[in-house]
Amino acid sequence: MMMMGIKMVMFSMLMVGVLITTSFAAYNVTYDHRALVIDGKRRVLVSGSIHYPRSTPEMWPDLIQKSKDGGLDIIETYVFWDLHEPIKGQYDFSGRKDLVKFVKLVGEAGLYVHLRIGPYVCAEWNYGGFPVWLHFIPGIKFRTDNEPFKEEMQRFTAYIVDLMKQNNLYASQGGPIILSQIENEYGNVDKAYGEAGKSYIKWAANMAVSLDTGVPWVMCQQADAPGPIINTCNGFYCDQFTPNSNQKPKLWTENWSGWFSSFGDSIPYRPVEDLAFSVARFYQRGGTMQNYYMYHGGTNFERTSGGPFITTTYDYDAPIDEYGIIRQPKWGHLKDVHKAIKLCEAAMVATDPTYSSLGSNLEAAIYKTDSACAAFLANVDTKSDATVKFNGNSYQLPAWSVSILPDCNNVVLNTARINSMAMLPKYIPQSLKYNLDSASDIQSSWSWFHEPVGISKTQAFVKPGLLEQINTTADKSDYLWYSSSMLVKGDEPFIQNGSQAVLHVESLGHGLHTFINGKLTATNFAPKGNHKISVDIPATFNMGKNTIDLLSLTVGLANYGAFFDLAGAGVTGPLLLRSSSGGLTLDLSSQQWTYQVGLKGEDLDLSSGSSSLWDSSAFPKNLPLTWYKTTFDAPDGNDPLALDFTGMGKGEAWVNGQSIGRYWPSFIAPGTGCTDYCNYRGPFNAEKCHKNCGKPTQTLYHVPRSWIKPNGNVLVIFEEIGGDPTKISFTTKQVGSLCSHVSESHPPPVDMWTTDQTGTNVGPTLSLECPSPNQVISSINFASFGTPQGSCGTYSHGICKSLHALPIVQKECVGARSCKIGVSIDTFGDPCRGVKKSLAVEAVCG
Fold first, then answer.
1. Which residue is catalytic, options 183, 185, 451, 812?
2. Is residue 467 part of a domain?
3. What's the pLDDT tens digit per position in 759-787?
4. DSSP string, 638-693
5. Global pTM?
6. Is residue 373 in a domain?
7. Is residue 389 part of a domain?
8. Residue of 124, 183, 254, 842 marked catalytic
9. Is 124 annotated in the active site?
10. Do residues 722 and 754 share a domain?
């Protein structure tokens, strides 16, 4: 009977999905202490972040469908002010910026939308999402009780709300938007703003409510969010979070599925067992909506990454990777978690949980009504597995795991036991197709332009003293030239007694190239965690006139922290000349300097590839400040594409005029801090699990297929520090092997609770499925039932093994797109009595 009850719950959930998809009538969204209430019904909801400008409109439908297939109810996105209003009063919602189209596509797929307007977003995005022109409004102070800022913030927020209303996108109009956010993680920094911060947050709340969206507003990380604003939690764990009112539900707006990466760092990742544990614990302890940040991270195209030093990839170890490929087993295991939790929905929304201790670090949470019962059993110990008694039954609880019992009796899922298959990615190198004739070499397909050192543009200007970079460039370019000259007579204090001169430069970062008399003398980048540069550069001067040219550069503006907008950049001094022997010092800081915003090649629009100034002779390699151009044909197939920049230094690249972002493969991660295995047990943090030590942080740069034509594509590169563009190649990303490893002690797949028509208790099952509908399982590389060891790609037989495993799996799976195999001695026989056995399989699709 309980099995039939669970089936009815799932049938009701499916019908709700159908209603969302087909209904365009207005519906009401409110909340109470237990949950969001949609059309009069409390809901248990699962959400995931997808930022529309970090992918392309051509990718959106597939990303949304994969999110829905993964068990999401809501897609959450920030709104990026700087993209939509690059010039005050001039709006842009084209291409990747088409917010309305994105929201409509989500709604058409039958999912809800959480629109996080902010308009401060953080998001590792340049300047936190603020347009830099905002900085130049007289008297403005960001994110505080400041009239100029509040006027602009309200104007943009109202503009977005009105745009959504004009397109009938709020739930009150029959649209998919059920939540909106105002401000973002202000509670992390509000103390720095004092009383003005407190009054500002009250103003922001009142302003948002006054816009009359018809849906609730939230503030994340804002413990004092005034009603009716819902305060929400962000973090790796939010099970212990409590809203600031017993009239508000417990919502989790950012469950970090991994972490972002920075140039010069190894790559962080988060084990799915821990992520699933955090999700189950949250719902166990009264939560009813949580959001993965990110569910698809995507790519920081153009100059949108912040930081500074945030990479172009924003993969985030998310369930859907940067290229739009499902990451297994993360996506599949979380899908199973979502199904298991939804089986508990009827009980969860009807009552509050009650808790009981099952022993040290062991807890049961029960949701029980007259008609429904659901339970969560948690073992929060970081080392020891446990056997517990609950409702008269015995349950095995691995350390750092939660078991979900939708009927308070049967375990449908344990967060530490993965039924979902794993996938090994495969990167296939593809040479650039240059359309060369047989007599040509690769170099002949490239043309180049050398960026002039120093001042080369008529818009240059002269000012006394050293200017801060962002105030000077307004971030129209990463680059600012500082140029000055000096006359050397031979009796200067900094070259007394024949000693060499030393140029001392201090800068707010993020990088600096120093040229003496047109020759590159030094390149320096700010150290990690300290965005300031302080260097002593040996310098040789000639008798007579000498030039000093400093090229200062940014690598994404600051996006986080109190007063981040005042962080600044560029050469701010002091700038001194002194002798290497410690003689007298000459201060150059206050003398006349000539300034040039940006590069000559930027003014010439070289990124489009259309200039007539490209040179095809005497092709240079490893030359700093060089633009390169070539044409190429698209690689065959439809697999996701990336450019491999191995052999290049640092710069930016464009394909058919569209920037794929900053590249920096020469920045190598430290050689320590990574391990082959990361123990998921115990609290996670961003430093716990890393890979890729001692290698470039990023060599592959996503090129969306929709950006390239079958042939005649133009690739333009600005190489800042020197590299060899002939080494650049394409890489396609494919799914290599499919793997799964399931033991006899696993609960049956959650699917079996709804698809088994006999009502019998189905045991553990191993499932495999090719990612593409056009593929079938072509071969089985490995199959072992007994005590197999290793991980996907490195499986090996244990001492105990069935001789029948490989032929049985081959017969069941080869030639089919998907297959399911029972993990039991009934299928494979018993190769070793009394030993707990498991089945490990590695398959290939073709």
1. 185
2. yes
3. 445 689 999 999 888 899 999 999 999 99
4. SS-EEEE-TT--SEEEEETTEEEEEE-TT-BPPSSS--S----SS---TTTSEE-T
5. 0.95
6. no
7. no
8. 254
9. no
10. no
